[in-house]
Amino acid sequence: MSKVHPSAIVDPKAELDSTVEVGPYSIIGPDVRIGAGTVVGPHVVIEGHTTIGRDNRIFQFASLGAAPQDKKWAGEPTRLDIGDRNTIREFCTFNLGTAQDAGVTRLGDDNWMSAYTHLAHDCQVGSNTIFSNNAQLAGHVHVGDWAILSGYCGVHQFCKIGAHAFIGMYTSLTQDVPPFVLVSGNPAEAHGVNIEGLKRRGFTREQINAIRAAYKHIYRSGLTLEEAKAKLAEEEAAAGDAAPQLRAMRDFLDTTTRGIVR
């Protein structure tokens, strides 16, 4: 049997692995599934069609799987999917998806979600990200792996944040952020490459230098965005070990819909 505190309310239809722990006064709805080793703290509400993977730690007063804050939502059976080994701190609010998008809000693996962070409907967050206190995503936002969002930053709906990007504290983000780029301010401005983060993750000097050169093409050369993309394509062909990073930047620029912070 799962380790469920007597004061917790767990619907009989919910599917909890036998190793799941549920703290006092928490409420778990009928369409919830929770994987092995996950610990749900006290006063947590998990509802909706929500699936949570293995070895997550969910702290007190989190609200997961509540109805999306979208007037178009009409009760469709949309979902919240949470992967493995995530830390979800106090007062986090992750909402269900909507039928107007993929129908699912998704959080990957090994993420650190600090207190009061918000994932609105249909957000897609990768793995190994860090959200500092009060980082807030509006609906339909996509965040790549290893991105870092500092405290109190706010992200406009439909924005995309590339892998390894860094968003500074109190940033108001209304456009897309390419991979590896550091932005901050209100309105947001680009301030170079997230070099310290890349060093910590084992990027080689060759890769970092190639990313810095790509940044200069996009932000410092006076080239149009199309010209900068063509330049990245040229350099990718001879970039060796750095080719995947240049390709990631070029692919991101090809798919941006709101324009990039520039």
TrEMBL record:
Q: In which pathway does it act?
A: Glycolipid biosynthesis; lipid IV(A) biosynthesis; lipid IV(A) from (3R)-3-hydroxytetradecanoyl-[acyl-carrier-protein] and UDP-N-acetyl-alpha-D-glucosamine: step 1/6
Chief localization class?
cytoplasm
Name its cellular compartments. Cytoplasm
Q: Which EC numbers does the record give?
A: 2.3.1.129
CDD domains, per database record: LbH_UDP-GlcNAc_AT (cd03351)
Q: Keywords in UniProt for this one? A: Acyltransferase, Cytoplasm, Lipid A biosynthesis, Lipid biosynthesis, Lipid metabolism, Repeat, Transferase
GO MF: acyl-[acyl-carrier-protein]-UDP-N-acetylglucosamine O-acyltransferase activity
User: Where does the record locate the signal sequence feature?
Assistant: none
Question: What positions does the domain UDP N-acetylglucosamine O-acyltransferase C-terminal occupy?
Answer: 176-261
Catalysed reaction, written as an equation: a (3R)-hydroxyacyl-[ACP] + UDP-N-acetyl-alpha-D-glucosamine = a UDP-3-O-[(3R)-3-hydroxyacyl]-N-acetyl-alpha-D-glucosamine + holo-[ACP]
SUPFAM superfamilies xrefs: Trimeric LpxA-like enzymes
> Can you tell me which family this protein belongs to?
Belongs to the transferase hexapeptide repeat family. LpxA subfamily.
Q: Which NCBIfam families does this one have?
A: lipid_A_lpxA, PRK05289.1
Q: What PANTHER family does the record tag this protein with?
A: ACYL-[ACYL-CARRIER-PROTEIN]--UDP-N-ACETYLGLUCOSAMINE O-ACYLTRANSFERASE, ACYL-[ACYL-CARRIER-PROTEIN]--UDP-N-ACETYLGLUCOSAMINE O-ACYLTRANSFERASE, MITOCHONDRIAL-RELATED
What is known about what this protein does? Involved in the biosynthesis of lipid A, a phosphorylated glycolipid that anchors the lipopolysaccharide to the outer membrane of the cell.
Listed under subunit, the entry gives:
Homotrimer.
What's the name of the protein?
A: Acyl-[acyl-carrier-protein]--UDP-N-acetylglucosamine O-acyltransferase
Gene name of the encoded protein: lpxA
